[in-house]
Amino acid sequence: MRYQPILKGRKGEIRALKKLSDRQKQEIHPLIELTPSGTKDEVSTGEFGEEVRSLALKGTFAIDASSGGPNALSEIGAGFADGLIPGVGCHPLLVPVIRLTDSVKALQAAGSVDEAHGAGFCLRFPVVDNDAGEEEMGARLPGLLEHVGSGPSDIDLLLDMQAVRSPQRVESAAESGFRLIDRIAEHGWRSITLAAGAFPKNLDDVPLGQASEFTRYDALLWNALMYRTKGADMGYADYGVAHPEHTSGRGIPHPNLRYTHEQSWIAYKRPREVKGIFRSICEDLVASDIWPGPDFSWGDRWIHDCATGRGGTGSPTEWRAVATSHHIATVVDRLTRIGRP
User: Could you list the residue range(s) of the whole structural domain that residue 177 is in?
Assistant: First the structure.
């Protein structure tokens, strides 16, 4: 099954991707978003191409450069032009993200990237709870295809439900998605993937010294839509351990860890005033019955080393890398074992 983690182009998320096992790299088709200028831990446009190229991913990966200005995609594409993936020996398969609302210039830039890389496109389509989506698709799709010089068979359709954080939202989004898929599947897309995010914007409501649980409503939405479509060939995408919206950091965060367990996240938070207190989070997690062991992912090995004193306590960037590493490993494992995220 196609799994497309949608990750912010920040140093923590990029580090997590670099640390994936070869098998995990083979199982994912990540979409990496260029973050707005000034975002904490951002990877700049100038660094972005080289950073992503160094990931040595085994398949395709998409890049959404819409937050980086009109020339960002061209600059990133140029950063790949002369390079081989280290240790792999083939050119990276870069898939530009496009939208029905993109300007002609943006679509032409995406077309140029496809000419250089030959990996097609990812059409990111926000889904709303009405029938406007089908009308917009019908009105704008012909022009988009003309400007990129390609057809639906070269396009991965990403139906983006965005934030889904309640059972009621799951129900309404599943109904909207079902109606839309039923009407637009006939275009003959290369693939169709459902995206949603359920992690909160921040951990302000998590009490210090306690663990709070959040439901992975994005996974429940995918399950609900699969039930309605009677097992359609549909991929799964999520926003990892982040909210779909880009958020800017507000100073130094409390030591925290966002840990994925089955269809929930467990969020740990400690007071920042105590030096090295992140180690207590790792100790509590390693002693719990939800921890899968140090060999489950690079992130879990890092947690083990921190808990046992073999490693340091890291930084906010490292904590996000650890959480993202474990999250991707969890979703890949669940999709492989039980066919559900």
Answer: 3-205+214-250
